[in-house]
Amino acid sequence: KFPVMGVRWRSSLTLGEKEQVNGSSAAAAGGGDNKREDGGNKEVVASYWGIKGEEVKKEDGTPWKWNCFRPWETYQADLTIDLKKHHVPTTFLDKLAYWTVKSLRFPTDVFFQRRYGCRAMMLETVAAVPGMVGGMLLHCKSLRRFEHSGGWIKTLLDEAENERMHLMTFMEVSQPRWYERALVFTVQGVFFNAYFLAYLASPKLAHRVVGYLEEEAIHSYTEFLKELDKGTIENVPAPAIAIDYWRLPADSTLRDVVMVVRADEAHHRDV
Prior knowledge:
CATH class of the domain at 90-269: Mainly Alpha
Number of helices: 9
CATH architecture of the domain at 90-269: Up-down Bundle
Number of strands: 2
Strand content: under 5%
Strand order of the largest sheet: 1-2
Shape: globular
């Protein structure tokens, strides 16, 4: 759970919880009267579009409780992926991307030090930006040129969504401080616009930056695992959202979550 001024983030609520929240809000707004004139209760709609969605169940028949992703969007991460792969910078753009990312690592290390939980959560708010920016610009390009995208729009948007799910997961295990929350607005605002302009100037440079960012992410999550193994960070049970999203065993722990997230980052590096 992730309280903000005493209220949990709505994005991490399950469908049932949202119905309770919406029902409470409706009751408060209407003086506690939550019934229709014919005596029946008002139907609480938990869909973003105001349309009640179909009832979704798991394979075992139990209700699916997440509204931010569906069972067919879940998967099992490939933990056998090569974590040490590295694209050696050869061209000028490669070197520019490489050293840009390296220069950004130093202030990040100084600020977060070994608070890897908050570090992971904060960096995921940035990591989910490139895929959305790239997908958006390719979408506009496809419209302008009246041509297909070759499948890359969906690939990049899926990557952005995957990074966002990393954030939804670490929200459940980390408690950022107020100034770290404020930092998200600044960093995301600067990074979004900088990456947008970089993509307009050179998509190849922009994608190479992401490749090196993912290499650094693999390194950070490896250090996270070392701290978990040493006992410096408590290996708490895995959040329910992570268990369903990555199809993890019910008794999985935070270490298992970090393992699958690191494998995701390696896949993004390769893309």
